[in-house]
Amino acid sequence: MDMEHLLKGTPHPTEAVFCSIFWNIHSNIPIGVTVSFRDMNKVLEIHQKDMDAVVQPGVTYDELNDALRPLYLFFSVDP
Length: 79
What we know:
The chain is of the alpha+beta class.
């Protein structure tokens, strides 16, 4: 991905994520990058014996619990 695409805030045609740069109002130095994982929301593997799962970063708790329900498992957030 080249700098021109980052500056425009538009996704590169071959990339799966959206990037944007925030500029410091006092200089021309970029101060951060935002990456959206909205479309990376798949549960890849569930290891029932180990009680763990491999998920993409955009998976919500509800989506994970929906995938775990047929196995009589659930994910509880630790307060």
